[in-house]
């Protein structure tokens, strides 16, 4: 049995006195695929925001490979999150958007170019490198956001609930 990659331990989160997550315990094993399913307002996105480091729980711990990352900022975590709003940079090309994180990490141009080519093929958007994100459909923008996350080789990749509803076209490719 594979080890726990992510482990939420006794997570509690409230907003304005309303408890959204109450003593949540959830773990995800390496190579496991997990879906959070529930009605609007039940805490799915809050859970993902806590995993990504964009929210801090009122109580509990977030463990990654057994290490407490509860207070670790998002940019220091070995995971990526793709939210409903893709935060693509409209002043950059598709290739520049995908390369953004890799450039910050100081990767070589050859490495970045290879990753861009691989990611665009994976999300079925080859040939879109020089286009503007503003000219893409919502589904295409979503796939660029996924490509941007994938090139950073995160251990887990989490996606907001709305994205999971729309990603059936890419799912088979992403998982294979």
Which features characterize this protein?
176 residues; alpha+beta; 4-stranded antiparallel beta sheet
Task: Write structural notes for this entry.
The protein is α+β, with helices and mostly antiparallel strands and 176 residues long. It is 35% helix and 22% strand. Strand 1 and strand 2 form a beta hairpin. Helix 2 runs parallel beside helix 4.
Order of helices and strands: EEHEEEHHHEHH
Strand content: 15-25%
Largest sheet: 4 strands, antiparallel
Could you tell me the mean pLDDT? 82
Distance between the termini: 21 Å
Short synopsis of the structure:
By secondary structure, this protein is an alpha+beta fold.
Helix and strand topology:
Elements: E1 4-15, E2 18-29, H1 44-52, E3 59-64, E4 67-68, E5 80-82, H2 94-104, H3 109-122, H4 138-150, E6 157-159, H5 161-166, H6 168-175
Parallel strand pairs: 5-6
Antiparallel strand pairs: 1-2, 1-3, 3-4
